[in-house]
Amino acid sequence: MTHADEAHSVLSMLCPLADPETGILMGFDGRLWPTDEPTARTALALLPPRTLRTLADDFPEATPPARRQICEAVGMLASTVADSIENHGSAQREGTMALGAACGIMSANVANTLAYREVLDGICGDGDEDLRDTALPVALKVFETGEVPQPPRDAREDTEAFALASLPQIDYLAADTEVRKRAGAFLMTFVLAYESNVPYLGWTCMHEPADPVSSFAREHLNDPGRWADAVREHRTFDPDALRPELGPVE
């Protein structure tokens, strides 16, 4: 199967219904797709082979919240492609991010929803989908830069450019295993600190040595739900307080 064939197959899975006359798509959850079929297929074909293959393999087995988040990410990429097609040949405003770079960031966003879907399943469960959607890009961006993205103070500033700049630029699905696991552990602690208001002041970004809390969380990447339950129960990230309950990692 060629890359284009796989993109078409994945689109049929994400959007099982399509109007043959208008090209309007309907997603697996009954919601209308933000672009027509040719644009959506083009967007999927832009994904790296590893991302597209993982999407094809993982989507059928993903939980409903994960499937919805994956579709949202692909839809955002498709919308960016649509903007690129619409603005092709026009002069770009000074300071506006090139659409090619924007598509690359949106492609990484799709990959990251796949890379951490099981971590988010374990931490968020079937609960607050807004938390799931917000936490993933923000946590990964903080891990990359050490800073929380701040919106423009002036409404006249380019909020669209800010939205793109606020997304992670690293494709963690294709990243080095060490980086991917460290980011996953950071994501776990970030979500729990926000959701449960558990104090944690030891944030360490990817350019700094891992702290004891994130190192302990990393040990539980394969069972994040159990780790999260222990954090919520004891109201702490302290490995010494959690280790007696969680026991040794198998």
Description of the molecule:
Helices cover 60% and strands 4% of the residues. The chain contains twelve helices and three strands, in the order αβββααααααααααα. It has a three-stranded antiparallel sheet. Strand 1 and strand 2 form a beta hairpin. The longest helix has 23 residues. It is elongated and about 60 Å long. It starts with a helix and ends with a helix.
Quick recap:
Strand 2 and strand 3 form a beta hairpin. This protein has 250 residues and is mostly helical.
Task: Using brief descriptors, characterize the structure shown.
mainly alpha
Helix and strand arrangement:
Layout: H1 3-14, E1 17-18, E2 24-26, E3 32-36, H2 37-46, H3 49-58, H4 64-86, H5 99-115, H6 117-124, H7 129-145, H8 159-165, H9 177-195, H10 212-219, H11 224-234, H12 239-246
Antiparallel strand pairs: 1-2, 2-3
Helix pairs in contact: 1-2, 1-3, 2-4, 4-5, 6-9, 6-11, 7-9, 9-10, 11-12
**Largest sheet geometry:** 3 strands, antiparallel
What is the global morphology?
elongated
Distance between the termini: 38 Å
Tell me what portion of residues adopts beta-strand conformation. Answer: under 5%
Radius of gyration based on Cα positions: 19 Å
Strand order within the widest beta sheet: 1-2-3
